[in-house]
UniProtKB/TrEMBL annotation:
It comes from the Archaea. It holds the Pfam family NUP. PANTHER family: PURINE NUCLEOSIDE PERMEASE C285.05-RELATED. Gene3D superfamilies: Nucleoside phosphorylase domain. This is Purine nucleoside permease. InterPro entries: Nucleoside_phosphorylase_sf, Pur_nuclsid_perm. Transmembrane segments: none annotated. One of its GO terms (biological process) is nucleoside metabolic process. One of its GO terms (molecular function) is catalytic activity.
Length: 284
């Protein structure tokens, strides 16, 4: 599941386009009522689609898939693959992060101009720990994937002073914070850290839009233990420590292509070794 197109993008732009171009041919297309984009299915059982951008669209589309005849939640794995912002304390531009937790950034309380926030004290869960065995197995499958780097991305990370921000792209693990708010800056990053800490939800790594919406839908259909989130860093979520620059989140670098490279390796590993994966991730 990507967030957005274009449907065909030979230059690699767009999340969905990279998958369509990469696979080239599909065995069939399945239109799902309530979903904005058909599911294109390969001959070995990988389905590729776009949910629409943002948590509301992701939740609605994922629910539509789960309710459709095309998807059996008991025998399907769900993988969100897309771009994200990254904390310079967790990765660098071009890195790919496999989420081990997903936190809802929209359900929070803020007071004045403080740098800490609190989650709602009522209602359903607003943070999930994803299935550890599944994340471990996905990480094993992705190990050794060649991540692309670019001169622009290297020049951008040179403005930072410490690892891992200054390092080459790598595959990482960490918490994904998802919400409808496109944000940038040190103050907001501190608020994100405080919310993750309140939830006891691991170490904050990426900021994105769709993950929590899709995770909620999977949870409602008892499929959360079959959900993965793969996010490639298109930008840092804050400027270097001694700067206060306005939003630079538009820098994409190699993120689209790296999200596809890692996501496809995981998807193909599952589909091509289905006997080992059907009832859950294989033992490591």
């Amino acid at each position: 599941m990507t967030a957005f197109g274009p449907a065909v993008a030979s230059d690699g732009s767009g999340e969905l386009g990279r998958w369509i171009d990469g696979y080239g041919e599909f065995e069939r297309e399945v239109s799902v009522p309530g979903a904005p984009t058909a599911i294109r299915v390969t001959d070995h059982g990988v389905g590729v689609t776009a949910t629409g951008m943002g948590p509301t669209h992701a939740a609605a589309s994922t629910t539509a898939y789960l309710l459709s005849d095309a998807v059996n939640p008991e025998t399907t794995y769900f993988l969100t693959a897309g771009v994200a912002g990254v904390s310079p304390h967790a990765g660098t531009v071009g890195s790919v992060v496999l989420a081990d937790h997903i936190v809802n950034w929209d359900a929070k309380k803020r007071y004045g101009k403080g740098t800490s926030v609190e989650p709602w004290g009522f209602g359903p869960a607003h943070a999930y720990e994803l299935d550890r065995g599944l994340v471990d197995a996905a990480e094993d499958a992705a190990r050794g994937v060649d991540l692309e780097d670019t001169p622009d991305a290297r020049a951008h990370r040179e403005r930072y002073t410490a690892a891992p921000a200054v390092d080459a792209p790598a595959i990482e693990r960490g918490t994904s914070v998802a919400g409808a708010d496109f944000w940038y800056g040190h103050t907001l990053a501190n608020e994100v850290d405080s919310l993750v800490d309140y939830h006891g939800a691991g170490s904050y790594a990426t900021t994105e839009c769709e993950g929590f919406g899709s995770a909620v839908a999977c949870d409602r259909f008892q499929a959360l233990d079959r959900y993965l989130s793969v996010r490639a860093a298109s930008n840092f979520d804050r400027p270097p420590q001694d700067e206060d620059a306005a939003g630079e989140w538009r820098l994409k670098g190699p993120a689209f292509r790296n999200a596809y490279r890692v996501g496809r390796v995981i998807a193909d590993e599952i589909a091509k070794n289905w006997a080992d994966w059907r009832d859950g991730p294989p033992d490591r």
